[in-house]
Amino acid sequence: MNSRITIDDRICNGKPTIRGKRITVNTILEYLGAGDSEEDILKQYPSLEKQDIKACLQFAADLLRNNYVIKPVR
């Protein structure tokens, strides 16, 4: 796992966060999905770095690299 993404059950209920801050990967991905630029996000969260945003994208890509099987519920 990328060292910039941390998972700690004491921070944000165990959701993946950026370097142990209370900024979740999901939050950053939602901003990007809404069309915000890296610069917009960095203005909103000045403690972040461009590499943190890239790490969020890489984290999501790594998750989607897995194969998933949908099983019917009976």
In words, what does this structure look like?
The protein is mainly alpha-helical and 74 residues long. It has a single domain (5-64), classed as Arc Repressor Mutant, subunit A (Orthogonal Bundle). The protein is 42% helix and 5% strand. The chain has helices at 25-33, 38-44, 50-64, and strands spanning 5-6, 17-18. It has a two-stranded antiparallel sheet. Helix 1 (25-33) crosses helix 3 (50-64). The radius of gyration is 14 Å and the shape is globular. The protein starts with a strand and ends in a 10-residue tail after the last helix. 16% of the residues are buried.
Short description:
The chain has 74 residues and is mainly α.
* Global shape: globular
Q: How many domains comprise the coordinates?
A: 1
Q: pLDDT under 50 segments (min length 5)?
A: none
* End-to-end C-alpha gap: 35 Å
Which percent bin holds the helix content? 40-55%
Biggest sheet descriptor? 2 strands, antiparallel
Q: Strands of the largest sheet, in order across it?
A: 1-2
CATH architecture descriptor: Orthogonal Bundle
